[in-house]
Amino acid sequence: MKHTGWRKPTPGLGIAEQLAQVGERVSIPKNKALLAIKRVAASLGLKPSDMMLLDTFGAFTKPQDWEEGRRPIVWASNAYLMEQTGFSLSALKRHARRLVDAGLIAFKDSSNGKRWGHRDEQDYIIEAYGYDLSPLAARAEEFVDRFAQIQDDRAFCQRTKRQITITRRIIRAKVEQAREYALQGPWKELTESFEALLERLPRTKATPERLLDMLEWLTELKTSVEKAFSAATESKDEVVDNSYEIIEQVVNDTQYMNPKGANNEPHILDTKQLNSVSSNTLDKRKTERAALDKPRPEVEETNWNTFGHKKRQTDIDVAIVMQSCPEFAEMAHGLGGYVNNWNELHRSAAQLRPMIGISEHAWNVAQERLGPQLAAAAIALIYDKHNAGEVASPGGYLRGMVEKAAAGELHLDRSFYGRLSEHRAA
Fold it and tell me: I want to staple 115 with a disulfide (CB 3.0 to 4.6 A). Which of 25, 130, 278, 338 is the partner?
């Protein structure tokens, strides 16, 4: 990398410049490049604030800047970037350097260290110095492949977790049945081994290898429990072995598990009763599940008067919004913690809307026409749809929502419940 005399060369800067040269020979749509990095940002160790700055850079560029033979260079001033992100100058420099070290942007420096640029009549960059996003174009396909692998690993982990749950419940049911009927066997030792394994269950995100090890250990313990149970029941014929009914019930109950998020169903309590479930009990459970599946209208909060708008009725609540929009929820959590009420959701929406290119004017119009509550929910929905590649123009999509609301044709609740059903079925 050419040394200008004012920025000290480092290996990271050199690699970033090499990637920028590769990216200059690539033609890729801007939205595709930005979507590719968003999907793998967490796996690269990037923080939400890093992605906010990268999104601000992307919003400054134009589609033609990403064509082959050109470089998407951002020469926005520090004052502009600080206004759009809310960062201090030191934070802005720190996050920019993190993006360089991650191989996502490069520095294209002028001789005096200032950022500036010019475009011709067709809006093509003639000459520019500043932040170069060409490395992002060079690595877009790499990020697409990485995301596919992440999805495969996620699906594998979900299947393995379900198998672990089934195996764990079978062990517990067998041991409790043996203890209730006072069967002879090493039940104390087996219980201690079982409890020791339960303590080793991963409480947070676990790698596929660790989950496989846990499933293998539990499977070995299940085999030992079943052998001890069989040996004990051979000498005690009066014991009725209904373990197969227990196993079938465990498998059926496990179908209601949803590893992607919380649901509103009651916990399945362990029981020592070995009597078969009556048809009346089953009918009652079905009725309870049907009642729980019905969406409940949200009770409006009283502190929304501070915005000076008339309250609007809605059948969605904050929990539904966050569960049906996981990408928005993750970014909101990274920026300001958990979102527990409409005020916090509104604040998060205001922070994240610049990241998808929604102008302040469009945001203000949406709040005036929809009300702050529905406007914030709309931003969450658009954010997730944009990240999924379903919405190319978030600003235009929001304006379309406002127009539908004016005609009485906007039904956000249907969108949220539909996406929530898709997530649960996945």
Answer: 130
Name the CA dihedral angle for 94, 97, 98, 99, rounded to a multiple of 10 degrees: 130
Domain that holds residue 312: 302-425
Cβ-proximal residues to 30 (8 Å cutoff; 6+ apart), any chain: 58, 61, 62, 63, 65, 66, 72
Domain membership flag for residue 5? no
Q: Of 125, 147, 188, 166, which Cα lies nearest the Cα of 44?
A: 147
- Structural tokens at position 272: 């020592």
* Non-local CB neighbours of 74 within 8 Å, separated by 6+ positions: 57, 60, 61, 115, 130, 131, 132, 133
Cβ neighbors of 312 (< 8 A, separation 6 or more) are 370, 371, 373, 374
- 246 alpha-carbon distance from chain centroid: 35
What are the C-alpha distances in Å from 145 to residues 37, 112, 327, 414?
11, 40, 19, 33
Say whether both 122 and 194 belong to one domain: no
Given a contact cutoff of 8 angstroms between Cβ atoms, the answer to whether 31 and 389 are in contact is: yes
pLDDT in tens, 339-370: 888 998 998 898 888 878 888 889 999 999 99
More confident residue, 275 or 156: 156
Residue 143 lies in a domain: no
Strand partners, 128: 117
Structural tokens at position 48: 């939400």
Full-model pTM: 0.56
Cα–Cα distance for residue pair 326/380, rounded to 1 Å: 9
Of 34, 9, 19, whose CA–CA distance to 109 is shortest? 9
Q: How many angstroms separate the CA atoms of 399 and 350, rounded?
A: 16
DSSP state string for 155-203? HHHHHHHHHHHHHHHHHHHHHHHHHHTT--S-HHHHHHHHHHHHHTS-S
Beta bridge partners of 106: 132
Q: Is residue 295 part of a domain?
A: no
The pLDDT assigned to 424 comes to 64
- Pick the closest to residue 384 from 408, 359, 416 (CA basis): 416
**Residue 288 and residue 294: Cα distance in Å, rounded?**
10
Looking at the fold, whether 159 and 280 belong to one and the same domain comes out as yes
- Binned at pLDDT 50, 70 and 90, residue 426 comes out as low
How far apart, in whole angstroms, are the C-alpha atoms of residue 218 and residue 235? 26
